[in-house]
Amino acid sequence: MLKQKLIKIHWILSSQLGFNPRILLRSLSQFPKYINDWRLFRKSYSGDINFMPCLHDRYEEGGATSNEYFWQDLLVARWIFSAKPKRHVDVGSRVDGFVAHVASFREIEVFDVRPNSSQIPGVVFKQADLMCRGSVPNEVGGYCDSLSCLHALEHFGLGRYGDPIDTLGHERGLANMVALLQPGGTFYLSTPIGKERVEFNANYIFNPRRIIQLAENEGLTLQQFTTVGAGGMVQEIAPTPEELEALACAPYNLGIFVFTKSLRKLS
């Protein structure tokens, strides 16, 4: 419990207030090394030198791969590459991660409640509030055969990104996304899972069984379930009652759900 509180305090300080105690302490401890290296370099170099200290990079690995965003973006992009859908639509995923991955090999349409003025090759951007049915395309038989929403549904209705406050925003958003999908289409959805709660106004943490039930209510069937845990541990999970109960009691994991839409309407 104490560890989780410290992690939350660190996140607030670093992400929301711009102060990262860990980086500060590490950087201060490395400053004498920086000064010594500068002196050694100065002895053999007579040109202009500006101070631009990089005090902690030497202790980082050559690229961060333990982050859950890294794994979800990579895995789902690879799955889409293998599936070769006719039209893929994304809702709210990272443009500088997943969307860029997919745009490297095919066109992708992106719906987001926030504006985006960037012109990106292979990306068609559309501003839309997925909590509102009238803001998304309404085509008989569905709009796309492949759909993704990665690390975004948990924000719906909390006002974090300028969206209206709505305690049922995630349910409305899920229903409207499913309406975009053609029968037989594939939906790649990732959300935080664990002991269900709201961390206002950051995100929901969902019980994985609730996500599966909401999806089934909209005519979706779970085909694959993968989790990303601490340190980037990726596991494909058989969604047995026992496994889902264990995940529902855990503090936090990322759940990646792959659903398909029923070929017939629910009665």
Shape: globular
| Percent in helix | 25-40%
Largest sheet: 8 strands, mixed
Q: End-to-end span in angstroms?
A: 45 Å
Number of folding domains?
A: 2
Q: SSE string, helix = H, strand = E?
A: HHHEHEEEHEEEHEEHE
Q: Using the coordinates above, name the CATH class of the largest domain.
A: Alpha Beta
Q: Strands, helices and their partners?
A:
Layout: H1 2-16, H2 21-44, H3 68-83, E1 88-91, H4 95-103, E2 108-112, E3 123-127, E4 144-150, H5 169-180, E5 181-193, E6 197-199, E7 203-205, H6 208-217, E8 220-228, E9 234-236, H7 241-249, E10 253-261
Parallel strand pairs: 1-2, 1-4, 2-3, 4-5
Antiparallel strand pairs: 5-10, 6-7, 8-9, 8-10
Helix pairs in contact: 3-4
What report would you give on this structure?
- This protein is of the alpha/beta class and 267 residues long.
- The chain folds into two domains: 2-59, no CATH class; 68-261, Vaccinia Virus protein VP39 (Rossmann fold, 3-Layer(aba) Sandwich).
- Helix 3 (68-83) runs parallel beside helix 4 (95-103).
- The chain has helices spanning 2-16, 21-44, 68-83, 95-103, 169-180, 208-217, 241-249; strands at 88-91, 108-112, 123-127, 144-150, 181-193, 197-199, 203-205, 220-228, 234-236, 253-261.
- The model has no long low-confidence stretch (mean pLDDT 91).
- The strands form two sheets. An eight-stranded mixed β-sheet has the order 3-2-1-4-5-10-8-9, sandwiched between helices. Strands 6-7 form a two-stranded antiparallel sheet.
